[in-house]
Structures are given as C-alpha cells and as structure tokens.
Write a structure and sequence with these properties.
The chain is an alpha/beta fold and 173 residues long. The protein contains 5 helices and 5 strands. Strands 3-2-1-4-5 form a 5-stranded mixed sheet.
C-alpha cells in the first residue's frame, strides 16, 4: 500500500495567506482542508506578521502535514508592497520549517503549469482545474484555491525535489 504524504500549500500574503492541505497517496490526491488566515490591516506590521504566524502555526498543529510548499514571490512595481509580501512569505516559510517540515518553493508559472497545463492562466482556470482534480475541494478565497494548487504542484514534483535535496545533503556531508 502506498504511503500517505500530507502536504500543505501556502499562498503568502500580508492581508490574506491562503492554505490548502492535501494527501498524496501514490499517484492519487485527496483534499483535506483549506482556508485563509487574515491579518488586521489596522494593526502595525509586526502585529500583522504575528497574526499570520499564529494562524499558520495553528493550521499546521491541527492538520499535521509532513511537507510544505510555498509560492515564490513575484516582484511588482510597488517596492513597498513587494517588501511586505516578502515578509509575509518569510513567515510562510519559517512556520513550517520550525515545525520540522521540508519546505519547497515554486514559481507561480510552475504552479499554473502543474495544474492547468500551461504556465500562464487566470485564477478562474486554476479554480476550475482544482475542482476537476479534487471535486471535494472547497475554498473560501482565491488565496485558499491557489494554496491547494501549490500543494498539487508539490505533489506532482515532490519526487524530483526530494531527490535533489538528498543529493545536495549527500554532497554537503
């Protein structure tokens, strides 16, 4: 019988951080849960980052994933917004790493290619394919749907990612 690997996908954002959890059993995928962690825009940056940290920590504690995947940040024209997104992304990587999970990173176009077959597509296409791949999947925001897509991407690529990490560890040791 194939081993079950529980994966959390994380779509980082300062206002909303989406999360999606799936089980990968061999070549099949099963939806476990998803949601959105929100920070209070009226609070200072440090407090908002704490809200994201605490929310993500609670999700990981509740669902006990063993691997994590985070979407890489794209750089936009607003440097301040990019910096804040980077700080939220730091939380999205730190929390699972501190929980002992291996954290993989994927570019947005890699996630789209894994889920819809091409590297460019809109959110509606991603949502539609998430529902096709996982009919029982539910999501409360675009961020949660994107997080499920990130987890699916990791499930499709995890063997090669795990192999590269093992090779790197062997070379370093």
């Amino acid at each position: 019988m194939a081993e079950t690997i529980r994966i959390i996908g994380i779509d980082p954002g300062l206002r909303r951080t989406g999360w999606g959890i799936i089980d990968a059993i061999g070549n099949s995928l099963r939806f476990v849960g998803s949601g959105t962690i929100r920070s209070d825009a009226d609070m200072d940056l440090a407090s908002r980052l704490c809200q994201l940290h605490d929310g993500l920590e609670a999700v990981i504690h509740t669902h006990m994933p063993v691997e994590a995947a985070v979407e890489q940040t794209f750089v936009n024209k607003d440097a301040t917004a990019t910096l804040k997104l980077g700080q939220a992304r730091g939380i999205a990587m730190l929390v699972p790493a501190r929980s002992g999970l291996r954290v993989a990173e994927y570019a947005p176009n890699a996630v789209k290619k894994s889920v819809i077959g091409v590297g460019h597509g809109d959110k509606k296409q991603i949502h539609m394919m998430v529902k096709v791949l996982m009919p029982r999947a539910t999501f409360d925001t675009d961020d949660a749907a994107d997080a499920i897509a990130i987890a699916i991407c990791h499930a499709h690529h995890r063997q090669s990612v795990t192999g590269r990490l093992a090779l790197a560890a062997a070379a370093a040791g």
